[in-house]
What we know:
This protein is α+β, with helices and mostly antiparallel strands. The chain has helices spanning about 15-25, 25-35, 125-130, 135-150, and strands at about 1-10, 40-45, 55-60, 70-75, 80-90, 95-110, 115-125. A seven-stranded antiparallel sheet has the order 1-7-6-5-4-3-2. The protein is globular, with a radius of gyration of 15 Å.
Amino acid sequence: MVSGQLSHELEVKASASDVWAVYSSLKLSKLIEENLPQLVQKVDVLEGDGSVGTIICIKFVPGLGFGEAKEKFTKVDHENRVKATEVVEGGHLALGFSSLKYEVQILDKGNDTCVIKSVVEYEANDEAAAKYATVDPVENVALLVQKHVTRA
């Protein structure tokens, strides 16, 4: 078993509350579907309203090797602006991971500036599977949210 943690931070020239409004809602699913066509074909909400327990299904573009993945929202903390999800089916689990979790926290830096701090925690069955661990998904989403909240 190989476990690890990867992180990514992005400073955004927008208020923490504006950025959190995107991350904490199902609007994020639609933004991903509409703006990352090179990676994602479709995002469906299978269950829930965006709160803890919500399950979404992400259908990836053919050829990426992920097929589709189901993610469950395990934490939505509005006070501390923290959201956590866990892949519960497909995606990296089909590539030899036993666990893949994402956590995003929006840190207020004042003066309408914040930091999107993303953490990826994983457990892979072996080194061959662990090589697929990456921050690319959380980085792509952070950049998408940044673009969305800062456009004029």
